Predict the 3D structure of the following.
Amino acid sequence: MKRLKKQGVNLSFALIVVILAAMPLLLQVGVISASSTILFLGKCIAFAIVAMGLDLIWGYAGILSLGHGLYFALGGYAMAMYLKLQAMGGGITDFMHVGGLTELPTIWQPFQTLPGALVMLVLVPTLVSGLVGYFIFKNRVKGVYFSIISQALTWAAYSIFIALSPYTNGNVGITEIQTVLGSIRGEKNRAHMFLLFYGALILMALVYALCRFLTGRKFGKLLVAIRDGENRTYFSGYQVSRYKTFAYVLSAIIAALAGALFVNFNGSITPSQMTISYSITMVIWVAVGGRGTIIGAVIGAFVINLCEYNLSSGSLVDLWQYIIGGIFVVTILFFKGGLVGLVCEQIPAWIRRLRSRAATAREPAGQMQKGV
C-alpha cells in the first residue's frame, strides 16, 4: 500500500511536468494567446522549487521558517547583479552613479562572470544559513522561538538592503535586466523563452528527485523522528543539531536557486521579495498543498499563484489577501494534510465511513429475514 501511494505521488508529479511541458507547444500553435502566460508559469516553477525546500524543513523536520524569503532574495540578487553587469558592459550602474560611486564596488566584482555569480549564489546563502543554523540549533532553540528569530533576521536583512541604496538601489531593486540566454521578449526571442522554460522545468524535476530521495532514506526518517520527538532522538545518540542544520542549509540553497530562476522570468528583483509577508506566503503554499509530502508543496505553489493570477484583479483586487488568509485558516483548521491529505486520506476515510454506515443499516434487515 505504501509503495502504491509512493508511485501515485510520483505519477502525479510526472503529470504536472507533462502538462507544463505542453504549455509552450500550446502557445506555438495558438491555443495560448500570450507569451506572458509562459513567463508566469516559469515564475510558478520557481515558487514550487522554494516551496519544496521549505517543505523539507517544515514538513519533515518541523522547522517553521518565516524568513525563507531572505534566501530566495539572496539568490535573486546574485543572479540579477550578474545580469545587470552584463547589460552595462561591466561598468557601474545608474544607481551607483546617483549614490556617488565612481568605480565598481568590491562586493559586485565576483558577479562579473557567470561562474563567479553561481559560486556566490550558493556560497552566500550557505554561509548565512549555516551560521544561523549552527548557533540556533546548537542551543536547541526551536518552535515558535525559531520562527520569531527567522522573522527578525529577514527584517534586518531587508533594512540593510534598503539602507545600502548605492549598492542595491534601495526599494527599487535591480531592474531592466534580461536572462542568461538574452532577451526572451517578442516573437524573435521565443526560442530563448522556451529554452529557459524547459531548463526551469528540468531544475524543478531535479529538486523534486533530490527531496524525494532524501526523505525516502534514513535521513528523512531521522528528520521525522526529530519533528515528532526531538528529545527522544537526541537521547538516542543522534546529533540532532547537525541534521537540522544540514536540512536548513540545503533548504536555503534550494530557495536561492529558485530566486535566481525567478529573476530570469521576472526581469527584476526588489527587497519586497525578502519581506516577512513574502516568506509567510511561501508557508501558505506548503500548508495548502500538504506539508510533509513534497508533491503538496508543488501543488500548493501552483494552485495559490494561479488563483492569484486569475482573481487578484478587477473587483477582487482588494479582497485577494483576505481570500488567501481565509484559505490558510480553513486548511489549518479542517484540512491539516492540505489538498494532498484531502485527496489521499480524508476523502477515502469519509467513503469508508459511509460504506460502514450503509453496511450497518443493512445488517438488521438481513438478520430479521434470517429469523423469519
Notes: The radius of gyration is 23 Å. The chain has a mean pLDDT of 89. The longest helix spans residues 338-371.
